[in-house]
């Protein structure tokens, strides 16, 4: 039986009460720890009783850490509805835009990434013959045949829809620098997948199963670019053993990103090739601590803590030594000029610094209080000194991921009115 709006509001209210009681329990726990007495058995017992009590008095409320089960329940509740909506009208033409992404953010190798406000766009339409036209970044270099990653994504979408792949004309406007560590390959895959689903009129289940993420991450092999490309913001991605799953991490407000993008390309496959397949325990421990520090600094918007949070021992030292001589000089220069943190973007060669204003939101600052220009200048000077040519961009995180810009026939632009009016 579908829930009414007032049921849902009631659930939310109960949820808030429940969360508040959990908060009180957590507070109690902190108090005990703060007294230096540790968590004794009576406190543990009190927590368990509080949880049990909450479970019985609010049966509608699910306990935390049961994400998977909650999702499965929602999927089951909406199964009939979803099935009815999984096939829609096929479309002639579609335009999709997808953001650049910066993977790893230092220590989060293959697990964390951020969407950037820098977008590539593709338009795909049904045609009499296969054709790819590309303009912008890497236009001369990207394959113009079926090996193009946009086509790979498109094929996966039609396979998911169980429909034959039609003849299509692709127009790609590449604004994401190609093979520079800014996720151009993931953007191409995600763009092809979404465009394909729209053309095929196929809707993937989303609740819980994150089907689009499954397809994209399986093609790319790791989720740190595709998750933020799809969902925007900063995303954590892991494989549970059965499937890919992702979670959004808070983006501290007002941060700016200063990118030094070398003129030379660095293929991700080559930059992965220089990494040893064995990791020493001390390096693993180093990175575990840094990733925890990073996620905590982001979650609490504590930019001062980013400096340590973006440090890495798993891939940057190796890549810096083998292929990117500019990496550590640029990191040191950006930090000395006031960056909150600086690291290799993805598999490089781009180096990205995070900056903020002197205090609070950067957009409320005077130019003289901001450090992004100072950091950019320091990076340019240092790149010159080490003899690496390139360009500097200043941008910000993108809170939204891939978007369908337009389609023919168009999707309705009307406001959707819920049918449960009273
Ligand atoms: N816009 C694009 N269209 C098609 N293929 C692309 C596009 N951009 C990148 N690729 C493919 O992805 C590869 C480069 O990606 P990669 O080495 O992972 O660098 P990046 O850091 O830019 O993702 C190239 O070999 C190219 O074949
Ligand atoms: N975790 C990957 C990220 C690759 O990102 P890209 O933007 O360079 O494709 C890695 O470090 O190899």
Summarize this structure as a short list of keywords or feature phrases.
single chain, 422 residues, alpha+beta, Ribosomal Protein S5, domain 2, Alpha-Beta Plaits, 3 domains, seven-stranded mixed β-sheet, four-stranded antiparallel β-sheet, 14 helices, 11 strands, 19% strand, disordered N terminus, binds adenosine-5'-diphosphate, binds the ligand N[C@@H](CCOP(=O)(O)O)C(=O)O, transferase, EC 2.7.1.39, membrane, ATP-binding
Task: Explain what the structure shows.
It is found in: Plastid. The chain contains 14 helices and eleven strands. The protein is of the alpha+beta class. It has three domains: 5-65, no CATH class; 93-248 and 401-421, Ribosomal Protein S5, domain 2, CATH 3.30.230; 256-395, Alpha-Beta Plaits (2-Layer Sandwich), CATH 3.30.70. Helix 1 (5-34) packs antiparallel against helix 2 (41-57), helix 6 (184-200) packs across helix 7 (211-220) and helix 7 packs antiparallel against helix 8. Adenosine-5'-diphosphate is lined by residues 138, 142-143, 148-150, 172, 174, 178-186, 188, 267-268, 346.
């Amino acid at each position: 039986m579908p829930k009414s709006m007032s049921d849902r509001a009631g659930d939310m209210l109960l949820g808030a009460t429940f969360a508040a009681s959990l908060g009180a329990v957590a507070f109690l726990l902190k108090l005990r720890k703060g007294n230096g007495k540790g968590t004794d058995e009576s406190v543990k017992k009190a927590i368990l009783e509080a949880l049990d009590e909450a479970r019985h008095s609010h049966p509608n409320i699910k306990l935390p850490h049961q994400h998977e089960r909650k999702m499965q329940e929602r999927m089951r509740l909406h199964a009939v509805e979803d099935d009815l909506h999984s096939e829609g009208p096929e479309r002639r033409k579609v335009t999709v835009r997808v953001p650049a992404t910066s993977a790893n953010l230092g220590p989060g190798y293959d697990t964390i990434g951020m969407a950037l406000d820098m977008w590539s766009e593709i338009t795909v339409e049904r045609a009499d013959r296969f054709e790819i036209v590309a303009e912008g970044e890497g236009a001369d270099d990207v394959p113009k045949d079926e090996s193009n990653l946009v086509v790979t994504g498109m094929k996966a979408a039609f396979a998911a829809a169980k429909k034959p792949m039609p003849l299509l004309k692709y127009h790609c406007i590449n604004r994401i620098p190609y093979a520079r560590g800014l996720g151009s390959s993931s953007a191409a895959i995600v763009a092809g997948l979404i465009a394909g689903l729209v053309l095929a009129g196929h809707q993937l289940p989303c609740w819980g199963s994150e089907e689009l993420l499954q397809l994209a991450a399986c093609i790319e092999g790791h989720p740190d670019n595709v998750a933020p490309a799809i969902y925007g913001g900063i995303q954590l991605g892991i494989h549970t053993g059965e499937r890919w799953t992702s979670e959004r991490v808070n983006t501290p407000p007002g941060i700016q990103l200063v990118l030094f993008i070398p003129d030379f390309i660095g293929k991700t496959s080559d930059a992965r090739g220089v990494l040893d397949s064995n990791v020493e325990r001390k390096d693993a421990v180093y990175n575990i601590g840094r990733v925890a520090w990073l996620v905590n600094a982001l979650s609490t918007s504590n930019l001062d803590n980013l400096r340590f949070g973006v440090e890495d021992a798993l891939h940057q030292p190796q890549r810096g030594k083998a292929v990117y001589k500019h990496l550590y000089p640029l990191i040191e220069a950006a930090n000395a000029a006031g960056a909150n943190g600086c690291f290799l973007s993805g598999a490089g060669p781009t180096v990205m610094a995070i900056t903020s204003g002197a205090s609070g939101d950067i957009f409320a600052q005077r130019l003289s209080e901001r450090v992004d220009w100072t950091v950019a200048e320091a990076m340019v000077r240092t790149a010159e000194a080490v003899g690496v040519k390139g360009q500097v961009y200043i941008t910000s995180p993108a809170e939204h991921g891939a978007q369908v810009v337009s389609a023919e026939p168009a999707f309705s632009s009307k406001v959707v009115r819920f049918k449960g009016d009273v």
